Every structure is written in C-alpha cells, then in structure tokens.
Predict the structure.
Amino acid sequence: MKSLIVEGWRFLPHSYAVVNQWQLLSLSRLGNITLRVRDMPLFHPRWRTQTGLFDEASENVLQSLETAPAGEYADATFRICFPFNFSPTGSGRTAVFGTSENQIIQRIQVSDEETYRQFRRREPPADLIVVTPSRWSAEGFYKCGFGSEQVIVVPHGIDPETFRAATDPRVRTRLRAMLPVTSDEFVFLSIGAMTGNKGIDLLLRAFAAVCHRHPEARLVLKGTDALYKSKGFLGAQINLLTSAEQDRVRGRLIYFGESFPHRVMARLYRSADVYVSPYRAEGFNIPVLEAAASGLPVICTRGGATEDFVTDEFAWKIDSARIAHRVEDQDAMRLEPNLEHLTALMNAAIENPSWRKQAAERGPVHVRAHYTWDSIAQRLVQALLD
C-alpha cells in the first residue's frame, strides 16, 4: 500500500485550506493509501483557525487524521499552503500545490529569497513537481522554467451532497427571505476577497447600469473579512462610482463578510438567480464551479482559468482582452473584461428565463459528472503515486 503525507492548512476559510480539507476528506475514504497529515504555519499572524466550516462528522474526520511525526517520509508528500515551500521532504516524490493568477511567480509567493532567486536565474530542480488547478495557472510555472512533465494540472471539485440545485421552490423562497429579498426581485451573486483581480469594480459599474433598466435587480456579495480586508476593498470601489451610480447601488447591495459554513454557502448559492464573476486573474475560481453545481447560471470572463470547466450550456462568457503588464520585472498577464458586454449579459440574464432554466439543469449534471472531490482525489493520487 502506498503512503501519502499531506502538509497544509486545516480549519481555515482560506481557499487553499478549503481545497486541502475537501481533498483530505476524499483521500481518507480511499482504501488503497496510507494517509498522514502535517499542519503548516499560517501565512499571517492575525489569521486564526476556525471550526464549524464543515459538518460535525466531517470535522471529526479531519481532526482524527493521523499526524506524520517529524522525520517521517512517505512515497509522496503533497504540500498545499502559502507561500510556496519548495524545500525537499525526503519522500519518494515531493509535490507542491500552487496557483499563478497572473501567469508569473512573484516573490511573495515563495517562502525564501534564495529559492526565488534560483527560479529567476535557472530552471527548477528536475525532481520538483507542481500541482496546479488550471491550464491558465500552469503557464506561470512553465514561464518559471518548470518542464511540462513537472507541472500536473488537477482541477478542484465540489461535494455533491453540499452543493446541489434547489428542487423545491418553497425551500428557495424561504432561503431568499433570509437575505432578505422578495420573490419578484432578481439576485446576482458574486463571492471573493473583493480584491482587484476579482473585477468587483466592473461588477459594481455594470450593476449600476442594469439597475437603471431593471430596478428589481439586487446584488449579493460575499467577502472574507477574517482573512482579507474585503469590506474595505468593497467600500473603496463603491466610492469610485459616480454619485448617481452609488445611489442606485447602495440600496440594492447586500454584503456578507463573515466566514460561513459550507452548508450556509450552499444555501446562499441556491437563493440567487445568476452567479457573476468578471475576474481579471484567477488560478481556478472555485465559486463558479460551486455555483454551477448549485444550479446557478453563470456569467464569467472569457479566456481565463474557468475555460477548463464551464460550457456554453450553462455559462455566458464576458468578452475580454489579454493585457500584458510588468510585475517585479516579469511579463505578467491578466484579462480585462469588457464592461459593456458584462452589462449586456446581466441584462439579458434577467430577460431570458429560458436560458436560466437550461443552465440550471445542465450545470449540475456537468459538474457532478466531472468534478466531484472524490474523482479529483483519485486523479491526484494517480498523479502522485502511480
């Protein structure tokens, strides 16, 4: 039986920790590996671990996972935390999870200065493996000198028991009342840190225009105040709107900044009408996948990481331009979604119930067929241990 040590974060709402915990739950159900874990230091001193994000049974499983003592090796060690730590583990294979939103590796993303300089001077060691969740993100590691055989693309997944479509309209009505919104209001939802790469500035401007035509529109935003300054980022973007835009947006905007358990996040998805993500740079964008699994039609940026897992059956794509820019003397890449096209798609989503009905049916089928955490864990094990 092969052995695997996973080094990462547990009991934290950060995206890396969320991915790690869902994968650990699926890995723990596999009968063909021996699984051990090591908890890694948190990135920021103000961060605090948090229980209650998963259901009690799942948290008990996560708590009960056997810890790998210092000096213990395995057939493979998989490290998933931030910044990226490429130090050797002594295991038969060392794999490091990472994302490259701007298709470069920046200094803040690497745990030590010497390793970062090494990547800038010459190719990484041949025995170093990177796991990344999208082809867009993989480009950053190729630019850094990793060979194609050193970069393994393994997407993220969803738990189908948690993220599922609402089949009973009465349940959906009760969920919307908790926001609160009425049955005749139209809810756009977007989830993220409210940072510039999420395109929240574009979303606010487009929403202001949509409200002028559709006063029944509402925008629900979900940030993560415990890890980021999401509410502050959002406030700064609202202040950049014109006075007329602010007047239209403020009374129609609902913001949540606390860290919700996954079951509550699932209810939030099911209470909305359309999910919108006009992102500029993402390593994967897991809320888009969760939204589709929950029966939400999706509007997202064309050309980025979501190209790997959305289809035209349930997602409309915002026209975008590839923008080269310099970061730390490197050629970075991002996307710039077209504001007018975003606005047009949001208006069309309200006015096209037949598309929404089709998307609500096709999205969950597609995601369940290809992107459950159990199937993703199998792909990860095959990549690391076969």
Summary: The first strand starts at residue 2 and ends at 8. The chain has two domains: 2-157+373-385, 169-370.
